Amino acid sequence: MDKSKHIVVVGGGFAGLYAARGLRRAPVRVTIVDRRNHHLFQPLLYQVATAALNPADIAAPIRAVFRHQRNADVVLAEVKRVDVARRAVVLDDGELSYDFLVLATGATHTYFGHDEWAARAPGLKSIEDALEIRRRVLYAFEAADREADDARRRAWLTFVVVGAGPTGVELAGALAEIARHALARDFRHIDPRTARVILVEGVDRVLPPFPADLSAKARAQLERLGVEIRVGARVTQIEEDGVVLGDERIAARTVIWAAGVAASPLGQSLAVPLDRAGRVIVGPCLAIPGHDEVIWVVTWRARSSNAFWAEVPRRSCIATKGCLRRSAALPQWPTFGAYTFPAFSPGCSGSRFTFSF
């Protein structure tokens, strides 16, 4: 085949790295584009946010990852949009033409129409987010130690985590451990063990996407750590010094947002159907209908260091509990000769998918 074929992979996260590395022996040129120069292991961001890890512990330079892959190049740039008609990716300082395109840009925060809350309740998607949360958490204990007024001191020692998905649960548990163990003996004028950590969830249980028994176990463990759990409660206002849940106001100086995510806005430039969350609706092989041989949109999530899976719409014939499986649809999946890349997950460990043309 023609070695001049150019594959552009947008995004240096799990999906982008695995797609690009899976093409390491293919007779093609691969360009990985990301607005940051490092790959980030997002599942451990909460540990950076709670001062258990340093940023370098969960980030690796993308160029180092592809140092020995001869057919790969790395471009540090922000992608503004995709010009589907011209087969070009428009960057903040130029553009890249492509023969084939893989979009793996992940997700961003959403505050459900209340973008003004972002400054008061940071989310957790990047190292910058994690360091800002770390700063606010540690400063809260310092401010409480110097505060003479009891009410204001209690507000500094109250931490509210909005959203009881995996990120919210991990953050709430880590904050409780910091207060009750790591910082317990470090202050003269306050007892960090009296800090309140409140986890707020709009539905009736924590970890809603998980089975009910795992949700119940997670709740029990959080409560043993001293986390207060408010389920069926929705945030109606976030203020500088408090959070409003319906008719209840909680005085708190530190609020962390873990309640919602939205698809990357880049998908809007494709001029294809999106779902209510802004995600691109893809076919059985993650291709965009109408552009099956050119563009694929992939989002991979990591729940642990050895559990990755591709998230595709439930309507897809090869999506089962968020996990790609072998099916009769697989022959449609594009292959580059015999070159494949693995998709690891609890339900389909070792499955391999093949690119070709």
Structural class by helix and strand composition? alpha/beta
Q: Pick out the low-confidence regions.
A: 301-357
Task: Tell the overall outline.
Answer: elongated
Distance between the termini: 9 Å
**Given this structure, which CATH class of the largest domain is correct?**
Alpha Beta
Rg from alpha-carbon coordinates: 22 Å
| Share in β-strands | 25-35%
Calculate the mean pLDDT score and round it.
Answer: 83
* Tally of strands: 25
Number of helical segments? 7
Sheet with most strands: 5 strands, parallel
CATH superfamily of the largest domain: FAD/NAD(P)-binding domain
* Overall helicity: 10-25%
Architecture of the largest domain, CATH level 2? 3-Layer(bba) Sandwich
* Widest sheet: strand ordering: 5-2-1-9-19
Total discrete domains: 2
A few lines on this structure:
The protein contains 7 helices and 25 strands. It is an alpha/beta fold.
Topology readout:
Elements: E1 6-10, H1 14-22, E2 29-34, E3 38-40, H2 45-49, E4 59-61, H3 62-65, E5 72-76, E6 79-83, E7 88-91, E8 94-97, E9 100-103, E10 107-109, H4 127-146, H5 150-156, E11 158-162, H6 166-182, E12 196-201, H7 212-225, E13 228-231, E14 235-239, E15 242-245, E16 248-251, E17 254-257, E18 261-263, E19 295-297, E20 300-304, E21 307-310, E22 319-320, E23 323-324, E24 335-343, E25 351-356
